[in-house]
Design a protein that fits this description.
The chain has 3 helices and no strands. The two termini are 17 Å apart.
């Protein structure tokens, strides 16, 4: 799996888990699944940063998203 795909997948999972955590807390439920998804997302991002030589800078994030979307559409 290319590091860009792993990185984008980790960011997307992390973004989607935050509202789930907030919803669980507001409903007075423990956010178990959402917390696990957030941990997995963080692990994916760290793995992608370690896998790509030189890591990711802030400028590389939109480029990674565009390249992953281009691969999916193609």
């Amino acid at each position: 799996m290319p590091p860009d795909l792993i990185f984008v997948l980790g960011i997307v999972l992390g973004v989607f888990s935050v509202p789930a955590i907030i919803s669980a807390i507001s409903d007075r439920r423990p956010p178990r699944v959402a917390a696990v998804v957030l941990i997995v997302a963080g692990c994916l991002v760290v793995w992608a940063i370690q896998k790509k030589p030189g890591g990711y800078s802030l400028r590389d994030v939109p480029i990674a998203f565009v390249s992953v979307i281009a691969q999916v559409v193609r």
